[in-house]
Amino acid sequence: MFPAMADAERTRRGSLVQEIIVIFSTGLYTGYSPIAPGTVGTMLAVALYLALSRLSPVSYGITVLAFLLMACWTAGMAEHILRTRDSQRIVIDEVAGFLVTMTFLPPTTGHMLLGFALFRLFDMVKPFPIRRLEGLKGGYGVVADDVMAGIYANMVVRVCIFLWQG
């Protein structure tokens, strides 16, 4: 292959990989929503959760862990591609955070609505130490704060379930 053709092929492959990273990191482009991209990205997470909720608890946990690792890598790469630190367009962190919110919870409409509302609240208000986690480098800083918001939301949903049952 001629060097110029090899360079063109590498550029085309690089562009395809970058586009795939953008597609995933922006939640199938939901991050481009002109209004509340994080909330729209979380709506995508609800659909993904409904698909994953059919898994056994162990399989769900492993899948969420793998998703978190992929989200950190993808968010970090997307920051370079979009040339913006923690861009609003990157919503894979919201998807990850909602999946954490719903971890090991029964997939009822009430639990999903409460989890959604609490996750968005904690993600926006950022109680301690959520805001500090944004300072982590690369994709870890993009995703870690949403994971912590998801943990908080999960704990509050569990308390509400306990109170409703008792």
Description:
- This protein starts with a helix and ends with a helix.
- Helix 2 (37-52) packs across helix 4, helix 3 packs antiparallel against helix 7 (138-165) and helix 4 packs parallel to helix 7 (138-165).
- The chain has helices at residues 3-25, 37-52, 57-82, 92-101, 109-125, 130-133, 138-165.
- With 166 residues, it is mainly α.
- The chain has one domain (3-165).
In short:
With 166 residues, the protein is mostly helical.
- Percentage of β-strand residues: under 5%
Task: Work out the number of β strands.
Answer: 0
- Assign a percent range to the helix content: over 70%
Termini gap: 72 Å
Overall number of domains: 1
Low-confidence regions: 1-12
Tally the helices: what do you get? 7
Rounded to the nearest angstrom, the radius of gyration is 18 Å
What would you call the shape? globular
> Could you report the average pLDDT, rounded to the nearest whole number?
90
